[in-house]
Amino acid sequence: MVSFAPTSDETLEDQRLYTQARLTEVACLDCLAKVGVKKNSEHHTSIQWHADSLAQCAEFRKMEGEPGGRHVYASCPRLSSSIDRAVAEGELEIGALDGY
User: Fold this and answer.
1) Distance between CA atoms of 59 and 82, rounded to whole angstroms?
2) What is the Cα–Cα distance from 51 to 53, expressed in whole angstroms?
3) Separation between Cα atoms, residue 7 and residue 21, nearest integer Å
């Protein structure tokens, strides 16, 4: 159940900017799961997972099978390496533009 549903155009645009603006699609070099990625700095990476990419991630499937399942904050090291490669090859820009 949604406790807050934005209705004004300005709030909807803020929501879009925060969750979708400047996302670059990056595919994991291992399982080929595709996610949206934004790097605001060298140390800050935003990743937008989709249901199909979560299901496709071999590392997450392995973590789900462990006692207690996958912790929400756990990342996929294989995807992290794929993101680092995308940055190194110039496919993914680092730096926030216009605050996003």
Assistant:
1) 13
2) 6
3) 19
Structure tokens at 99: 């605050």
Tens of pLDDT, residues 40-69: 889 989 899 989 998 999 888 888 888 887
Task: Decide: helix, strand or coil at residue 25.
Answer: strand
DSSP string, 33-91: -EEEEEESSSS-EEEE--HHHHHH-HHHHHHHTSTT---TT---HHHHHHHHHHHHTTS
The whole-model pTM stands at 0.77
Q: Are 81 and 26 in contact (CB under 8 A)?
A: no
β-pairing, 45-48 vs 34-39, is antiparallel
